[in-house]
Amino acid sequence: MTKADIVSKISDKLGMEKTEVQAAVESFMDEVKGSLETGENVYLRGFGSFIVKTRAEKTGRNISKNTTIKIPAHNIPAFKPAKVFVEGVKSNVKVK
């Protein structure tokens, strides 16, 4: 599902213009992104949490030059789904 699909479905459900829905979806994504960029987590009850995870420093390998490199500690955005969300997916989606 793409952002356009989400906008279309919400527009159909609520009877709103697609441009209004797209602006709302874009604003939501901008707010989540902005919060994470400032180190603030976003919690949505019943859906999940957008969090900032810290990755520790580690040693990696450059295979083409056969050398080791240090990968510094860094932060990454992550999503942790709520229990209700996980249980819904487990019970409704068949294993392939």
UniProtKB/TrEMBL annotation:
Key word DNA-binding present: yes
SUPFAM superfamilies: IHF-like DNA-binding proteins (SSF47729)
GO biological process terms held by the UniProt record: chromosome condensation
One Pfam family here: Bac_DNA_binding
Record carries keyword DNA-binding: yes
GO cellular component terms attached to this protein's record: cytosol
Keyword line: DNA condensation, DNA-binding
GO terms of molecular function: DNA binding; structural constituent of chromatin
Family according to the record: Belongs to the bacterial histone-like protein family.
Protein name, entry field: Integration host factor subunit beta
